Amino acid sequence: MYYKSFLIKYAEIAIKGKNRYLFENALIKQIKIALDDVEGDFYIRKEQGRIYVDAQGGYDYDDAVDALRHVFGIVGICPLVQLADNGFSVLAEDVAGYLDRVYPDKHFTFKVNARRARKDYPMESMEINAALGEKLLEAFPDLSVDVHHPDVTLCVEIRDQINVYSEVIKGPGGMPVGTNGKAMLLLSGGIDSPVAGYMIAKRGVSIDAVYFHAPPYTSERAKQKVIDLAKIISAYTGPICLHIVNFTEIQLAIYDRCPHAELTIIMRRYMMKIAEYFAKESGCLGLITGESIGQVASQTMQSLAATNEVCTIPVYRPLIGFDKQEIVEISEKIRTYETSILPYEDCCTIFVAKHPVTKPSLNVIHKDEMKLSDQIDHMVSEAIETAEKVYV
Ligand code: ATP
Ligand code: MG
Questions:
Q1: What does the alpha-carbon distance between residue 292 and residue 288 come to, in Å, rounded to a whole number?
Q2: How many angstroms is it from 268 CA to the middle of ligand 1?
Q3: What average pLDDT score do residues 55-73 get?
Q4: Do 77 and 190 belong together in one domain?
Q5: How many Å apart are CA 51 and CA 338, to the nearest integer?
Q6: Ion ligand 2 neighbours, Cβ < 5 Å
């Protein structure tokens, strides 16, 4: 591989003043985690407010770029050539060699964007731009200069070494995971919740997850699907501890004793309570769901209020104002869509009412939940105690 290094560009985190180094260190940590599974050894270094990834020997370029494109906090990935400073004429030759190698077809416009970060270099930035531009035009007559809208901006940074790059591969943006605490994602097998987890992780939040299943009404395949979804989003979020909760007893009890129109709401309230238990246990500062106003009966304003009432920590609903199509687009982009649409049963769809309430009254819900009071505490404890933890 021609490129031995990448220059990592990060924007949002650069403006965080004194906290900057915390953000950079978190970013470096996430880059390390992301590159762990890529063939090759990588050394990541922070130097003069920049982060470099250096490959130590051979590596898989496409996999490395793909891994870096999953690291929140990165806005640009620049495949980089580093040159020693052997004077300007050698630099000009090397840069011409770079251009020749990276752009076999020379029919394009370019400009040189030099930056003299080391002030003892004998030429000023503008001088380097002009002189280098001229040398390149001499070497490749098909090239032309366009300083306003060039096809290629050739960046030349004069530091202890000289950085040459011209390609910026878009990163996912956001903030490095781990800079904004941790939250517990209610992860179902659907389209929405993986997207919700992705969006909160993008703001720097680490994620753990909880999935409620109802064996034997739901299958092993449905469970495996959720584990697979957790794996896909873990490429962005880093490692996830997924709590798998057996919800069958609770669901059957609600089904037997409560009005069917309220099944989903009451069930959701117990899901939230149990999720909150695991959240507190592992230091999470909030819950995350894939809910969006009005999407289904259990997501009207009244239903969301009823669900929310049982929570004592904040519930983050990043999709609250999104249309389904917008959510689908993100799920396609993050590659969860194909898995989400696999047709395995969800625990909520099995015990679903024909005519669910769309405007639940809290008083009525409280009264109907009393019908569970002799056994529900025990069932909740049991569900918590028997939960399985899967690390992905
Ligand atoms: P999704 O596509 O995320 O399943 P949905 O449109 O199917 O969402 P609901 O089934 O009403 O909507 O679920 C709303 C939210 O409740 C989900 O986004 C998820 O956060 C949580 N949730 C629902 N079912 C489960 C489950 N079995 N395990 C964990 N969380 C769940
Ligand atoms: Mg669902």
A1: 12
A2: 9
A3: 96
A4: no
A5: 34
A6: 188, 190
SS3 call for 246:
strand
**Do 230 and 190 belong to one domain?**
yes
Structure tokens at 338: 């194909």
Residue-wise pLDDT tens digits, 145-199:
999 999 999 999 999 899 999 999 999 999 999 999 999 999 999 999 999 999 9
Q: Tell me the residue type at 172.
A: P
State the Cα–Cα distance between residues 81 and 164, nearest whole angstrom.
Answer: 5
Q: Whose CA is nearest to atom 25 of ligand 1?
A: 188
Q: Would you say residue 175 lies in a domain?
A: no
Q: How far is the CA of 217 from the centre of ligand 2 (A)?
A: 15
Q: Residues near ligand 1 with C-beta < 6 Å?
A: 186-188, 190-193, 210-212, 271, 289-291, 295-296, 298-299, 346-348
Cα distance between the two ends of the chain: 31
pLDDT digits (tens, 9 = 90+) for 333-346: 999 999 999 988 77
Distance CA 315, CA 44 (A): 36
Do 87 and 230 share a domain, yes or no?
no
123: alpha, beta or left, given left = phi > 0 and alpha = psi -120 to 50? beta
Which residue has the CA at smallest separation from atom 6 of ligand 1?
192
Establish if 281 belongs to a structural domain: yes
Phi, psi of 8 (to 5 degrees): -100, 120
Partnered with residue 156 across adjacent β-strands are: 114, 164
* CATH number of the domain where residue 297 is located: 3.40.50.620
In the reported structure, the alpha carbon of residue 252 is separated from the centroid of ligand 1 by a whole-number distance in angstroms of 18
- What whole-number distance in Å separates Cα of residue 220 and Cα of residue 236? 25
DSSP 370: G
Is the confidence at residue 347, as pLDDT, over 80?
A: no
Identify whether the C-beta of residue 26 lies closer than 8 Å to the C-beta of residue 206: no
Q: Note if the pTM is more than 0.70.
A: yes
144 Cα–ligand 2 center, Å? 55
- Say which CATH number the domain at 156 has: 3.30.2130.30
- Which structural domain range is residue 201 located in? 182-391
How many C-beta atoms surround the C-beta of residue 11 within 10 A? 12
Per-residue pLDDT for 13 more than 70? no
CA 355 to chain centre: 37
Residues 6+ apart with CB under 8 A from 127: none
Residue 331 lies in a domain: yes
